[in-house]
Structure formats: structure tokens, C-alpha cells
Design brief:
180 residues, alpha+beta, Aminopeptidase, 5-stranded antiparallel sheet, 3-stranded antiparallel sheet, 5 helices, 29% strand
Amino acid sequence: MDPLPLTTSRLQIRALRDEDADALYRIYGDPEAMRYVGSTGKARTREQTRKSVAGFIADRARHGLGLWATDLRASGEMIGMCGLIPVAGTGPDVEVVYVLEQPAWGRGYATEMARACLDAGFASFGLERIIALAYPANGPSIRVMQKAGMHPAGTMHAHGHDLVCYEAFADARSGSEPSR
């Protein structure tokens, strides 16, 4: 079942479109925003970002899980991306991910995104367990995991690094499904 769009109090989470590449480049082209993203932690070119968006769209079409655009409800402006993906592209664990442009940092959007993705993963996809991973130095991301109701699960080697791992279980969630 396709859970999109997801609507939270301030955000609309929807399927990515090819034309989202320019908005995503505000994040992917920013070295600070990319410092803890992926295996390299490096900014990407506009062309690399365009190819990433095309790949994300294709992955979602193949697997159902994927990365989704996040827009502000008030303006419709895309400020980030979130979703559920198999760890390192292969699983078996499924990871909740979130990334925001710098002007949106520190406003609680990442927590709102993570909670909506967790709810969709448990309700729409029937997942029993979802993890989140972060570089140990990425304190803000770890706080998002905690505020989203996830619990420490040690470390995991993924994306070429030893990462902090948090987890959430379907039977432990007591929130409601995000509205559609």
C-alpha cells in the first residue's frame, strides 16, 4: 500500500519528482549539510544530484520503500527528503532517513519527518522493526532519533563506517497513523 502523501502538522511528504533535483541540490550541494550523509560525507554536483533523484524514483517504483520529498505545508517549498530504505540498499534492516536544508535545521522538522516515516513503515508497510543510523559525531541526528521515540541498539557497520544505531518496533508504538 502506498502511504503517500503523508501529512503532518507542518509538512507534506510526497513522492519525489524529477523536477525536485534543483531543490535537493540546495542540500546535496552544501558541504555542511552533507557532512554526515552517505559513505563519503561530501557534497555532490548538480548532475550527481539529478542522477540521485532519478535513482530514488526508480528504487521506489521497484521496491515501494524509498526516499520522499518533504515540503512545507504553508508554502509548498521543498525543504528536505526523508523515507524508508533498506540499509546499504540491500537490507535486511530498513532504515528511516531524513535530510534537511540548513535554513530548516533546529525547528523540529526532522523529528516530524522521522515520526511520520516510522508510522508509515509500521502501518502501511507492515514492518516490525525500523532502525536509524548516524555518525557518532552527529549529535543533532541522534537527538532526532531519541525524540522520534527510537531506542539505542548499539553500533552497526554500514556505509563503510561504524555508526550509532537506534531502533523502533511496531508493537511498541502507540501513536496514530499520519493522515493522508
